[in-house]
Design a protein that fits this description.
heterotrimer; A mainly alpha (160); B mainly alpha (199); C alpha+beta (329); A: 160 residues; mainly alpha; Arc Repressor Mutant, subunit A; B: 199 residues; globular
Chain lengths: 160, 199, 329
């Protein structure tokens, strides 16, 4: 359970974290710990609580849902080939059910409506330059360089 | 593994058919989503219904989630749309931009909204939970209380907490865990869960 | 259910009242304006050190700041407490940014005049023309009593703001930016702060000072002259925004290629315009985009790539981008 605690704090390295998620799949007490620890954090931050019956009802509703199964887009091709080669009808069947469940509920599509594209990384330089000057051009609405320092966090390793 | 990657891991597991991974996302974000929805819907029972519907919609839409935005950003949009549809279906007008005065906006952020409008039983329960957490916090040994406060309220990393508390990172990790487990132990009877039952 | 309807009806009434207040300008809270002046000076004239949290979207980031004033000189050290380690060291107009994991330090020297210590009158007028400024309650922030100030935008070209200023010194303890639905777009807040006291020069020096000789140094030249004319005009400028900088600057990683950078502000919100030749190799995503609290609009005009971005609603950057044109055409 100590690993769950570290996991939710973002303090496990990637390999450990993946292992821990795997364990959660087979151990309900770990999931319970995860849920309770998150509840504690929210209470300490004075986040409003939902009724205690909420989780039971939601889990029931979720259990009634057809299991969703969707490959990650970047893996799509590789997976598609895999399915073709292995001719694993069983797996393909589950996959189809997942997509059917999705297409039968077009309402869920509106989630993406009005969504604007996230800025691409080529925008980095502009953003940094903007913050450098914006802070001094206007009334200091935040302490100068707050936005700047938060922008350059994302800069560096990835842009070089 | 950082927060966003944790969510991405859970989403990917759920996309591969692991419903429990999705339940972990629900456990993590339900109160945040609840607070968002309470901006549109006053009644706490209705907030819960809409939150449930939003999570189920999100689950169904998982195949379309590609990680372009953070999971919560995506869930947030689904939540807003569900709330709007719900209000329209109930014959109430969905709020438009200018109709919120700033006083109201202020109230939302303090997260007090739900507590004000909870039904008596629900209110009692959330009060009991809050009281138990706070009492147990007060009774914790100083070093455990400081560690969990720096983590949960200040949002500091273990490394920073280690610097502040002048102890090894491993000690921070174990203190935060012990603090959480002590409080969780006191909460379990209230939540109707014991270690062998889920949640 | 009843309470919902009542509450929204109430909100509507307030909204109408605000829109109809033609004499609101005469009713400006003069105390609130004095507070704005006080805030503008405090950040630059006081010595302080503290930890602050910056939130935008679902990102929460914690940094530490040490600010020291020694006579006419200002020193500042900002360091991140989470995510990749970063340090920004500022001495007046000279800014050094440290990226330890790639052993790089970036230096930049500004030529631009800063708007401190006091808010220039034209900036203040600009603010009151486009925001309704009033005082809120006295609240507690980071253990201090703070005067709240609310700046409600008068149109859809800008976001609202709420400031909390320390009651004695005027130092900004917390600031929030609101969107069209009064949702919080970004928030900055001190969680721990010490105002005044003695800060030594060593405390505002970089922690990487001893190693930096071996690091890569990027030096940025920006030819920032107010009268440098880029040859571009904004034909339909959103109300209240005026040009404060127009410059040609070098691109990151060097090269002869220069980039035009224009900065506009309404006194609170800033918008940047970037213009550079669009290369064939680079794919350009035209149209709107978003990055945290920033809205972005990209457009190709002739052979130039125009990018407009700022902490404003999407409509503001779109209007500026769509009305940018080379002069005389």
């Amino acid at each position: 359970m100590e690993r769950i605690s570290a996991l939710m704090d973002g303090e496990l390295d990637d390999g450990e974290a993946v292992q821990e998620f795997k364990r959660c799949g087979g151990d309900a007490t770990l999931v319970e710990g995860w849920a309770t620890y998150h509840l504690i954090g929210d209470v300490l931050r004075q986040e409003a609580a939902l009724g205690t019956g909420f989780n039971d009802r939601l889990r029931e509703a979720l259990a009634a849902e057809p299991t969703v199964l969707a490959p990650r887009p970047r893996n799509l091709q590789r997976r598609a080939r895999l399915f073709a080669l292995s001719a694993a009808a069983g797996i393909a069947g589950v996959l189809a059910v997942g997509w059917l469940a999705y297409f039968n509920h077009p309402a869920s599509l509106d989630a993406g409506a009005g969504q604007v594209a996230e800025a691409d990384s080529s925008m980095n330089e502009y953003l940094v330059a903007h913050h450098e000057y914006a802070d001094s051009a206007s009334m200091p609405s935040v302490t100068p360089y707050v936005r700047y320092v938060n922008e350059i966090r994302r800069e560096g390793a990835m842009s070089r | 593994m950082g927060d966003r990657e944790i969510d991405q891991q859970l989403v990917e597991r759920a996309q591969r058919g692991d419903k429990r991974a999705f339940e972990m996302l629900v456990a993590k974000y339900q109160r945040k989503l609840g607070r968002l929805l309470s901006r549109f819907i006053r009644d706490s029972a209705e907030v819960e219904d809409v939150a449930q519907e939003a999570f189920i919609k999100a689950y169904r839409a998982l195949p379309s989630f590609r990680g372009d935005s953070a999971f919560y950003t995506w869930l947030y949009r689904i939540g807003i749309n569900t709330a709007k549809n719900y209000l329209v279906a109930m014959g109430r007008r969905a709020p438009t931009t200018t109709e919120f005065d700033s006083e109201e906006a202020e109230n939302f952020e303090d997260g007090d909204q739900l507590r004000d409008v909870n039904t008596p039983e629900a209110e009692l329960m959330s009060k009991q939970i809050a009281a138990t957490v706070n009492e147990t916090m007060q009774a914790l040994p100083e070093e455990l209380r400081t560690a969990i406060t720096l983590r949960e309220i200040e949002g500091l990393s273990y490394e920073d907490i280690a610097t502040i508390m002048n102890c090894p990172i491993g000690t921070v990790r174990s203190r935060i865990f012990r603090a959480r487990e002590t409080i969780a132990e006191r909460l379990r009877p209230l939540l109707g869960t014991s270690k062998d039952k889920r949640w | 259910m009843k309470s919902v309807c009542l509450r929204w009806a109430g909100g509507l009434a307030v909204g109408t009242a605000l829109a109809a207040s033609t004499y609101a300008d005469q009713l400006q809270d003069t105390d609130a304006l004095a507070w704005l002046q006080k805030i503008a000076g405090a950040a630059r004239q006081l010595s302080y050190e503290g930890t602050f949290v910056y939130q935008h979207g679902d990102m929460v980031e914690t940094s530490k700041i040490i600010h020291m004033v020694d006579g006419a000189s200002e020193y500042e050290k900002l360091s991140t407490l989470d995510g990749p380690p970063r340090e920004v060291i500022r001495n007046n107009e000279e800014v050094l940014s440290y990226y330890p994991e790639i052993k790089t330090v970036r230096a930049e020297k500004r030529a631009g005049k800063r708007t401190f210590p006091a808010l220039p009158p034209e900036l203040l007028t600009n603010i009151t023309e486009h925001y309704d400024v009033r005082r809120g309650d006295v609240e507690r922030v980071a253990g201090f009593d703070a005067q709240a100030l609310v700046l409600e935008p008068r149109d859809g070209f800008r976001y609202g703001h709420k400031f909390w200023a320390e009651i004695g010194s005027g130092l900004l303890l917390k600031a929030r930016m609101f969107g069209e639905r009064h949702q919080v777009i970004e928030q900055f807040a001190f969680t721990q702060l010490k105002i005044g006291g003695k800060i030594s020069l060593d405390e505002v020096r970089s922690s990487y000072q001893s190693e930096q000789d071996k690091w890569k140094h990027d030096r940025f030249a920006s030819n920032d002259a107010k009268d440098s004319d880029s040859g571009w005009v904004i034909k339909n400028q959103p109300a209240g925004f005026r040009k404060v900088y127009e410059m040609r600057r070098s691109k990151q990683g060097g090269g002869a290629q220069l980039l035009t950078h224009i900065v506009l502000t309404d006194g609170l919100a800033a918008v940047s315009v970037f213009i550079e030749p669009s290369s064939l190799k680079q794919k350009v995503n035209e149209g709107p985009a978003q990055h945290g609290a920033i809205n972005i609009y990209t457009r190709i005009v002739g052979e130039q790539r125009v990018t407009v971005l700022g902490e404003t609603p999407a409509a503001t950057v779109a209007q500026i981008a769509n009305s940018l044109a080379p002069r005389g055409r």
